[in-house]
């Protein structure tokens, strides 16, 4: 049986983060605690290397860090609602929502499918607002599973 892309234990609500690297690390810690990342430091290095190539901030207050890594055991999506916005390199300002896509090293197709499906939903303000308004991690996970995961 495959794991769902995301779940309540992969969602951080009211996350306090000093900067994008800190926010990323907090989401990686959720993935590691859930057993989806075998080496948090190794995966963090992979995400940082990807971010160094190009900032992954998107319009609408979104950060979209992502990486394929040998330290990832299953395609996963960690979601963070930040207490205070953090600069993610988007032209329209800092991010309040962060989506960390973690894909296994050989998971090119998974990684791109997740990224494309998420990007298609994130252009809609109603989707972003529904996540910001969600009262808890379980609701955020349910919205993402329903709206992003191909059925």
Automatic annotation (TrEMBL):
<dbReference type="InterPro" id="IPR051541">
    <property type="entry name" value="PTS_SugarTrans_NitroReg"/>
</dbReference>
<dbReference type="InterPro" id="IPR016152">
    <property type="entry name" value="PTrfase/Anion_transptr"/>
</dbReference>
<protein>
    <submittedName>
        <fullName>PTS fructose transporter subunit IIA</fullName>
    </submittedName>
</protein>
<dbReference type="Pfam" id="PF00359">
    <property type="entry name" value="PTS_EIIA_2"/>
</dbReference>
<feature type="domain" description="PTS EIIA type-2">
    <location>
        <begin position="4"/>
        <end position="147"/>
    </location>
</feature>
<keyword id="KW-0597">Phosphoprotein</keyword>
<keyword id="KW-0762">Sugar transport</keyword>
<dbReference type="InterPro" id="IPR002178">
    <property type="entry name" value="PTS_EIIA_type-2_dom"/>
</dbReference>
<keyword id="KW-0598">Phosphotransferase system</keyword>
<keyword id="KW-0808">Transferase</keyword>
<dbReference type="GO" id="GO:0016020">
    <property type="term" value="C:membrane"/>
</dbReference>
<dbReference type="GO" id="GO:0009401">
    <property type="term" value="P:phosphoenolpyruvate-dependent sugar phosphotransferase system"/>
</dbReference>
<dbReference type="GO" id="GO:0008982">
    <property type="term" value="F:protein-N(PI)-phosphohistidine-sugar phosphotransferase activity"/>
</dbReference>
<keyword id="KW-0813">Transport</keyword>
<dbReference type="InterPro" id="IPR004715">
    <property type="entry name" value="PTS_IIA_fruc"/>
</dbReference>
